[in-house]
TrEMBL record:
Monomer. CDD domains: LolA. It holds the Pfam family LolA. PANTHER family: OUTER-MEMBRANE LIPOPROTEIN CARRIER PROTEIN. The lineage of its organism: Bacteria, Pseudomonadati, Pseudomonadota, Betaproteobacteria, Nitrosomonadales. Its main location: periplasm. NCBIfam families: lolA. One of its GO terms (cellular component) is periplasmic space. InterPro entries: LolA/LolB/LppX (IPR029046), OM_lipoprot_carrier_LolA-like (IPR004564), OM_lipoprot_carrier_LolA_Pbac (IPR018323). SUPFAM superfamilies: Prokaryotic lipoproteins and lipoprotein localization factors. GO terms for biological process: lipoprotein localization to outer membrane; lipoprotein transport. It is found in: Periplasm. This is Outer-membrane lipoprotein carrier protein.
Amino acid sequence: MNRTLNRTRVSFLIFFLFVLLQGTPIVTWAAAVDNLKTFIHETQTVRANFSQTLYDKNARAIQNSSGTLEFERPDKFRWIYQAPYEQSIIGDGKQVWFYDHDLNQVTIRQFNVAIGSSPAALLAGNTAIEENFELLNLGLQDDIEWMEAIPKNKDSAFEFIQLGFSLTGNLQFMALRDNFGQTTYLTFSDLIKNPSLPDGFFKFVPPEGTDVISE
């Protein structure tokens, strides 16, 4: 895959995550949607590590990556890729900065245009999640409670989001499929609820000499 195109796709991996439960029998359960609502109600800020794998439409793994994320409700987040190369996606509720460290290039988009009905909006948005998503319980598999969030906006860049919670209500997995048939599977670790985050943490100032593109 062309390196520039590959990095553009990584910029949108908060939109494109893997569906784990495809074709797998599950036991009926009704707690995952409640877990999401409780998570959003009780959690103002979050810090976590993540790892993810991107799959093509034939379910072949084509990229592994990892990094860190923080968010503060409503509408502020930092999604930092550390491997296989450095890239930062930062939103302050008004703008989103997509910064490629190696290319020394940042793309700036308006928040509502860049995020819309995305996983970032689902986790870091306001508490009125059912205005933008249809929420469905999927069931229990291997001690993970699964739910699905289907965007009500038909122009969304993806088909659905799936979230997996432990039996104690901790968010552990996130998954979705994009409209091109590519999917990605994301695992959270060391997730901390309500950490103290510095002032100005969700603002981004491009380094001197950075190529800045506004859209």
